[in-house]
Amino acid sequence: MPENAEVEITIHDPYTLPPTITDPDERARLLREVAQNMNANSFTGDPPRLTREELHERR
Fold it and tell me: Please, are residues 38 and 30 in contact by the beta-carbon 8 Å criterion?
């Protein structure tokens, strides 16, 4: 390949599937449902803060 040649790179991810739902209204409804579920299961409270040693603990 000559120096400064223009190339095109395509990455194929075998784990990424094309969407099965293509209707924009249905996709928006599902996105709202996911957001509601995430908000319903959010972390709350005041958990203890980890020390530097705990964050970098090696096993």
Answer: no
